[in-house]
Amino acid sequence: MPGQSNITLGREVELYERVRLSDPTNAVLRAVVLASPCESLAIMRTYDTLAALLAANPEVTNGDYARIELDNADLAAPVVDDTNNVIPLVLPLLEWNAGGGPDAGDAWDYLVICYDSDSTGGTDSAILPMTFHEMRVEGVAVVPNGSPIVYDLTDGFVTARQYP
Known about the structure:
Mean pLDDT: 92
Low-confidence stretches: none
Order of helices and strands: EHEHHEEEEEEEEE
Oligomer: single chain
Strand order of the largest sheet: 1-7-6-2-3
Helix content: 10-25%
Structural class: alpha+beta
Number of strands: 11
Shape: globular
């Protein structure tokens, strides 16, 4: 289960739908990778902006790494599962494979899915972190070596749920 940011807790469906419905027009989700080592999830979830998060947990700087931007064309309408009282929000496969894949350098610790209401002029101080996903294999941060890196969130990057 992903860690969820306090600032967007309970708003995941709303923000996902804002991007999917282009409201506002330039709204996107952004996939950002943090370099290892990161602070604990308990601390990271308290940051209210991507800028604040990155001030304490740097973004990776590997060659051929870039943030992935997901717009309305990338998102499917959520399907409400009334049997299990959940709404999984799915994303396409996230792939970093420019030039064959990210170069060696920083180890990749966490993937952060963020909401950006203005992809044309927004800054990191206006981007909201939403969820945190470990990029570790058996507890060890992923170390790029020039091969493609693919992260699968097709089963849902977060699941809004009803608790009894």
